[in-house]
Design brief:
252 residues, mainly alpha, three-stranded antiparallel beta sheet
Length: 252
C-alpha cells in the first residue's frame, strides 16, 4: 500500500508540474505551446512555392521528387544507349522527363504500398542481393565506371548499393505478385496457329520465343491495370506535378 501511495503521489506531482508549465507557457511566457497554437499555419500555396524553389518536380503524399533525380535517370538512360544530353532535342528531353517522372511517382507509390503491407513475403535474402549486384556490374564496361556512376548518384559505398538493390528486388517481387501473368502452352500454340504464316517450321521451334513475347504483352497489360486500379486510383489528389519545373530547360 505504501508503494502504491508513493506512486500515486509521484504521478500527481508530475501532473501538477505539467499543469503549472502549461499555464505559464500559455498565459505568462507565451512559449512554444502558445506559439504553436496561435501562429498562422503555412498555406498550401506557400509550401508549393517553396517546393518549386527547391527543385521539386512532383510530390507523392508530400514526399518530394527532385528535378535532379529526373535528370540523373535521363543521363543514365542515354548513357546506356551510348548517347549524351547534347545528342537530344528539346522535344525528346521533354518526353523523357515526362516518362521518368511518372516512373518515379509510381516507384514512390509502390514503396508506400510495400510499407503498408510489409511482411515476410517481401523479405530479400543476401543471396538475392549478391546475384543482383553481380548482374548489375555486368551492365557496365568496368567496375570503375559502375563506381563512378554510383558515386555521382550519392551511393556511399558497397553497403548502400546493396541496400538500394535489395529495395529494388523487394519492389520487383511485390509487383510480380500484384501483376501475376502466366502463358500456358495451349495459349502459345493457339497464337502460333493463328499467325503460322509468319513463321517457318513447327510450333516447337518457336515455342519459347512465343511464350516470352506473350508474357511481356500480358505483364504490360496487367501492369497498366494495376497502375490505374491499385496505385493511381487511391492516390488521387495526393500527387502534385510541377510541370514548369520539370520541363524547364537549362538557361531559361
Amino acid at each position: 500500500m505504501r508503494n502504491l501511495a508513493k506512486a500515486m503521489a509521484i504521478r500527481f506531482g508530475v501532473y501538477g508540474i505539467l499543469v503549472i508549465y502549461l499555464a505559464c507557457d500559455l498565459f505568462l511566457f507565451q512559449g512554444p505551446v502558445y506559439r504553436s497554437l496561435n501562429e498562422p499555419q503555412r498555406d498550401e500555396k506557400t509550401e508549393i512555392a517553396e517546393a518549386k524553389a527547391s527543385g521539386v518536380v512532383a510530390r507523392v503524399y508530400y514526399r518530394p521528387i527532385f528535378r535532379a533525380q529526373v535528370e540523373e535517370k535521363m543521363v543514365e538512360y542515354l548513357w546506356r544507349r551510348g548517347r549524351t544530353i547534347d545528342d537530344t532535342t528539346e522535344g525528346e528531353r521533354r518526353l523523357l522527363r515526362q516518362v521518368i517522372v511518372n516512373e518515379l511517382i509510381d516507384d514512390e507509390l509502390v514503396k508506400l504500398q510495400i510499407k503498408v503491407s510489409m511482411s515476410k513475403e517481401v523479405f530479400v535474402s543476401g543471396i538475392q542481393v549478391d546475384q543482383a549486384l553481380t548482374s548489375e556490374m555486368k551492365r557496365y564496361p568496368s567496375e570503375d565506371v559502375f563506381g563512378a556512376l554510383a558515386e555521382r548518384a550519392a551511393w556511399s559505398g558497397v553497403r548502400e548499393r546493396r541496400m538500394r538493390l535489395a529495395a529494388r528486388i523487394q519492389r520487383a517481387e511485390h509487383l510480380a505478385r500484384m501483376v501475376d501473368a502466366k502463358v500456358s502452352e495451349e495459349e502459345a500454340r493457339n497464337w502460333f496457329e493463328v499467325n503460322q504464316s509468319a513463321f517457318s517450321g513447327v510450333f516447337e521451334d518457336h515455342q519459347i520465343a512465343i511464350i516470352d513475347a506473350l508474357l511481356v504483352e500480358k505483364r504490360e497489360k496487367a501492369w497498366k491495370g494495376f497502375r490505374i486500379e491499385k496505385l493511381r486510383r487511391y492516390a488521387k489528389g495526393k500527387i502534385d506535378l510541377f510541370e514548369e519545373v520539370l520541363f524547364k530547360e537549362e538557361g531559361e
